[in-house]
Amino acid sequence: MNASMREAINTAEDMVPHEDLDKSIARLSGNKDRWAQLQINDRIELLEQIKHCSMEVAEDWVETATRQKQIPSGSPLSGEEWISGPYGTGSSRSAWFHIRSGITCC
Fold it and tell me: N or C terminus: which one in the chain shows less Cβ crowding within 10 Å?
């Protein structure tokens, strides 16, 4: 790993309070059983809410990722952040939604 990459990682680590991250992970983990027990229609509704919320923050999401990776503004490399971030998440969510919707119809 080169020095600039190590510096970027250190900067990112400094920007995310570990306590907040740990609390978020604990909250997520604590709700896994609740998610598993949700009816399919409730999961679909929740995924729709997630879709809406993630679209609202997609641009900030990509800007933050490119800034943390020191990708110049307007660089074609930012497209990779869109694909691996909001678009990738959206595609997975859409596929899950499609599968689950088919299950509820049958």
Answer: C
Reported pTM: 0.59
Alpha helices, H only, 1-106: 3-15, 18-30, 32-37, 40-68, 78-82, 88-105
3-state secondary structure of 66: helix
Tokens of 76: 């074609």
CB 66 within 8 A of CB 73: yes
In the chain, which residues have pLDDT < 70? 1-17, 100-106
Give the pLDDT score at 105: 54
Q: Can you state the angle between helices 40-68 and 88-105, rounded to 10 degrees? A: 170
Work out the angle between the directed axes of helices 3-15 and 40-68 (0-180°, nearest 10).
130
Please return the burial class of 47, using the count of CB atoms within 10 Å of its CB with bins 0-12, 13-18 and 19+. Answer: middle
| Torsion angle of C-alpha atoms 51, 94, 64, 1, degrees rounded to 10 | 150
